[in-house]
Amino acid sequence: MIGHRVLPLLNAFIAVALWLLLAAWLTPAYGPFGMAIAIGVATIVSTYAATIQLQVTDGLNPFDYKLVQALALALAGCALMALAEYVLHGPARFAACAALWAVTSWLTLRYGLTRDDRLALGGLARRLRLV
Questions:
Q1: CA of 46: how far to CAs of 6, 11, 14, 33, 127, in Å?
Q2: Residue pair 22/37 in contact by the 8 Å Cβ criterion
Q3: Is residue 7 within 8 Å of residue 1, measured between CB atoms?
Q4: What is the torsional sign of CA 62, 66, 125, 81?
Q5: pTM exceeds 0.70, yes or no
Q6: Over the stretch 20-33, which tens digit does the pLDDT of each residue have?
Q7: How far apart are CA 110 and CA 131, in angstroms?
Q8: Residue 38 CB neighbour total at 10 angstroms
Q9: Which residue from 42, 58, 85, 110 puts its CA 20 to 30 A from 4's CA?
């Protein structure tokens, strides 16, 4: 958002106002958990507002099919790790989860990033054979 100095400031004011409202509403009833919810919601709203502003002002959108691919691969990997955690015991559980984590991480980097993003990783991309 280069050249748009007021928009980040507006985001910050909106986030602080939302945080104050939610904190005043949730903290008396739920204590620290209510405060955590207020902070989390304000942070997410502020970040999403910045994303929307970037899309409107500059025409950029970070949510493309590559993100969906990466999230689907990560979800599948997490499900397989949960299954290994449930089925296996002892050292086999650790080995299976470690191997599944490595494979999931590689697949997510390989298919979740564009070619230019993988090339930007430089030597690491070549060593991991992402390119």
A1: 14, 6, 7, 20, 37
A2: yes
A3: yes
A4: positive
A5: no
A6: 999 999 999 999 99
A7: 8
A8: 21
A9: 42
Query: What contacts 24+ positions apart, CB below 8 Å, involve 66-71?
Result: 66/111, 66/112, 66/113, 66/114, 67/112, 69/111, 69/112, 70/108, 70/111, 70/112, 70/113, 71/112
State pLDDT tens for residues 24-82: 999 999 999 999 999 999 999 998 888 888 888 877 777 788 888 999 999 999 999 99
Q: What are phi and psi of 44, to 5 degrees?
A: -65, -45
122: DSSP letter: T
**Helix 32-58 to helix 6-30 angle, to the nearest 10 degrees?**
160
Chain centre to alpha carbon of residue 87: 28
Question: In one letter, which amino acid is 77?
Answer: G
Give the separation between CA 41 and CA 49, rounded to whole angstroms.
Answer: 12
Res. 3: pLDDT tops 80:
no
* Residue 99 pLDDT level (bands cut at 50, 70, 90): very high
